[in-house]
Structure formats: C-alpha cells, structure tokens
Write a structure and sequence with these properties.
Blueprint lengths: L3 E9 L5 E10 L4 E9 H4 L8 H10 L5 E4 L1 H14 L4 E4 L2 H14 L10 E4 H7 L5 H9 L13 H8 L11 H18 L8 E2 L8 H4 L8 E4 L3 H13 L4 E4 L2
Parallel strand pairs: 1-5, 3-4, 5-6, 8-9
Antiparallel strand pairs: 1-2, 2-3, 7-8
Helix pairs in contact: 7-8
Length: 255
C-alpha cells in the first residue's frame, strides 16, 4: 500500500482566526482518498480578508457536489481528527507549515479541544519546494520570462508560482480557499516527491532564501543570509543541504 499523507490549508479572517480549513488525504501514487472543507460559522463572520468571497463560500456550501460544510469549530476539528485516525496519517503537510500548524493550535486552544494534528510529523511544502522545484534552471528561466520576481529582485516562491510552473500555466491564479489550495498543494507534494532529491525535513524559517542565486544572496540584509531551522537535529543535515546546493548561506537554530 502506498504511503498516505494529509495536506491542510487554512484561511484566516482579519482577527487572525481560522475560518476555513481544507483537507486532502492522498497517497504517494497520486490517489486522493478523501477531500473536505469546513467553514467555521462564527469565525466566517469575523471580517474575512476578502469580503467578496463570502458569497463564494456560501455557493460552495450550497453545492451538493462539493465537499464543503458550514459547521462550528469543535465539530470540524473532531471530523479532521477522525479522518486522520481512520487513514492512519502520520505526516501532515502545508505550504508555510509554520503558519498553518500555529493556526490549528490556536483554534483548538480557543475552544479547549484536541488539536487533530498534534503529535503528527509536520512538514513544510514551501521548504521542500525551495529545495527542489525552485532550484531548477528551467524555473529560473520561467520566472524571468513571466516576471515571477519581487520588486527587490527575489524569485517568488509561493504556492501559486510553484503550481504555475509545474503546470506550465503562468496565468494561474490561486483561489485562496482551503480546499482548492489544498488540491494544488497535493500536486506540488507529488512533484517534489518525484524529484528524489536530498531533503531537509521539518519547518525552516525563510526557506525562500534557498531559491535565490548567490549573487542575490550576497545583496540581502544580513538577517536574510541565514537559514534558520527549528530543531538542533536539523542543523547537520541543513549544512549538507547547503553544500549540495552550493549556496552561500549561514545556518542557525531558532531560539
């Protein structure tokens, strides 16, 4: 049986509360085993960043063919917990996993209930993409051709750009809703997996640095010339990664 993993994507309102959780459970062969989206009723009304999307959410909820429901937060987290247990999920991925994991912890603490991803191995797709997808020479060419760089000249490394590149669709626009974003992140996961490259696991702060060329890295402020890892165990492996990528980057362990 192929390895199974979960992808989680959360969206927050202007109060920085989770109001939208998307979940995709898939395996390493590319099969989606379960997908679902939970819209948290109380938090949805707490000023979403994009008020025009409230109508979009209600369209999703009303669509019997789309796996989206309007629920209270405790029920959503209980559903997620049951699904992760049912499919024996041990690794949970998210793009910018530090953010999503923190938001899942916050919503669980708000209602004093179990965090369904607590105890799982949390893996950051952003960090993995910066070690694989964004290292490719063809990505650099693609980014320059389609102006996927910031005003300061850094290569963009968000999920929208990653998906645009791997699908050869420079006009792709991310929807920024939980389930649709989780779907594209699953595709990014599979693409990273196929690279079979040396990899630093876990959460890395500012992984976008890895995608920059050395000439640009030397121009960055000092704080952005250092890769910050979350755990001491990552330090040795991160040194090996930097050497393999040929990057002029320092490494430190977050306090």
């Amino acid at each position: 049986m192929a390895k199974r993993i979960a992808i989680i994507d959360v969206e927050t309102n202007q109060k920085k509360e989770v109001f939208d959780i998307g979940l995709v459970i898939g395996d390493n062969d590319g099969n989606i085993l379960h997908s679902q989206e939970w819209i948290l009723q109380r938090e949805l009304l707490g000023k979403p960043w994009y008020p025009r999307k409230v109508a979009l959410y209600f369209d999703k909820i009303a669509n019997p063919d789309y796996p989206c429901e309007l629920v209270n937060a405790p029920n959503a987290l209980e559903d997620i917990d049951n699904l992760l247990t049912h499919y024996d999920i041990r690794e949970v991925y998210a793009y910018n996993a530090g953010f999503d994991a923190t938001q899942m912890m916050n919503i669980a603490e708000k209602y004093n209930i179990r965090n369904p991803i607590d105890g799982k191995q949390i893996e950051c797709l952003w960090a993995w993409a910066c070690q694989t997808i964004f290292q490719q020479k063809t990505f650099k060419k693609f980014a320059k051709m389609h102006d996927f760089r910031t005003d300061k000249g850094n290569y963009k490394t968000n999920a929208e750009v990653a998906y645009a590149y791997i699908t050869k669709n420079p006009d792709f626009v991310e929807e920024h809703t939980g389930l649709e974003d989780a779907y594209i992140e699953y595709r990014i996961y599979l693409h990273c997996l196929r690279q079979k490259k040396y990899r630093l696991r876990g959460i890395i702060r500012n992984p976008w640095i890895l995608a920059q060329e050395n000439e640009r890295i030397r121009q960055l402020p000092k704080q952005f010339q250092t890769l910050e890892v979350a755990e001491l165990e990552q330090f040795t492996r991160s040194r090996e990664l930097i050497q393999k990528l040929g990057k002029e980057i320092a490494i430190k362990v977050a306090r």
